[in-house]
Amino acid sequence: MQAKDSNPPDGGYGWVVVVSAFMVMGLTAAVLKTFGLFFVEIQQHFDELASTTSWITSVTIAIFHLGAPVASSLCVRYTHRAVVITGGLLAFSGMALGFLGLNMVWMYATTGFLQGLGISFSWTPAISIVSHYFSKKRALANAIASAGECAFAFTFGPFFQWLISQYGWKGALLIIGGIQLNICVCGVLMRPLASTCLLEASHSETETPPGNGASKIDKEDKSAITHTTFNWMLVRQPEFVLYAIFGILAAMSFFVPPLFLVPLSYSLGIDESWTASLLSILAMVDFAGRLLCGWYANLHITKTVHLLTMTITLISTSLMLLPLANNYLSLAIFTGFYGFFFGTTVAVHITVLADVVGMPDFDSALGLFMLIRSTGGFVGPPLAGLIVDMAGDYRAGFYMAGATLVLSAGFLVTLDQLQQRKERGTQTNTKPEKSTLPYPSLHPLKVQ
């Protein structure tokens, strides 16, 4: 019974958790992606500069990342369910209070700070608990859950535009906040795994054989028990540090293509209606990439870190080729390649993080990884903008993003080499000692 409980279910009720996480991804990340539809409406209402209005989204993104370690530590202290429900209430409060629209500072505090904290408290534990419920099928489960962002973003664009036209931007915010209350329902469905408590109880009752250290069963139980405190010492582990540096460099690149894709299209003389279709293509192929890569990773043919290195290399190649486009068709093809490989990367990068640190430290690692990775997201777009200004061409931004991804792949290769070296060292230290008997198959008879 204990052995069974110590392993993730890899199915069963876990699929209910995956569907719940799918919904949470849509009600958080997809809302953040499509919030730009409110930009002009809010700017005109308060008669503010574009730079002033853009701080609403900037605050949301910043709090989303900065709140990740807090959300992870609360998951460790309490439960994923409690944190997700809290996140749903915070997200609703941010939108509902934003409905009042008192002034720009009020918008920063509500649809900026509260919404960002709500997204962080919902997104982080939803992704985390999926990894706890799955082991062999973890990559597939994470891919399906993350696909909720693409599926909802594809439909939220026209839906939010309709809400704004019918009820104004204030009414639309209130309705969207009400819809986000469904995050709480998803949180209720995220039932905590009972294995941790059972293992701790069984561990305390297990007696250690005298003079022989901990037994094999006892060691296996220890490895399965989740830590009850947030592990800040992960920053001292070389494997985690290498993966965090990869995350910074990747984030520097990922925010650049969506920023310069539309201006590049306009510079090529492509009509606005055709340019809008590029974003739809991006969402569809992203969705397909996540599901396909999750299915492939679930076959366990390729090591997840190797698969991630491969997808990062393919993304950088597509970004290097995208500036060569000179008409709509070629731009759509290269955009499709980028979107597909971006989806495959998102599908497996959380699974690789779990493989790097192990499940006992996963909650802590996810929070720290999100916090560290955010620096790349903040630095990347301004740096790319500076390069574009210096070159006088939007293509320069794509070259910068592709080159940064190539550099990030180098840290994945280094991480893989370090892991392989440690695995070889472990295998060498655990080789059984040779028997000193002249005939190993014979055993001395016991005297009756």
Question: Mind explaining what this structure looks like?
Answer:
The protein has 448 residues and is an all-alpha fold. 78% of the residues lie in helices and 0% in strands. It is built from 18 helices and no strands. It has helices spanning 2-5, 14-34, 39-46, 50-66, 68-77, 80-98, 104-133, 138-180, 182-189, 195-205, 216-224, 238-254, 256-267, 272-298, 304-321, 328-357, 362-391, 395-429. Helix 5 packs across helix 6, helix 5 (68-77) packs antiparallel against helix 17 (362-391) and helix 12 runs antiparallel to helix 16 (328-357). The model is unreliable at 1-5, 196-226 and 435-448 (pLDDT under 50). Residues 422-448 are annotated as: Disordered. One of its GO terms (molecular function) is monocarboxylic acid transmembrane transporter activity. Keywords: Membrane, Transmembrane, Transmembrane helix. This is Monocarboxylate transporter 2.
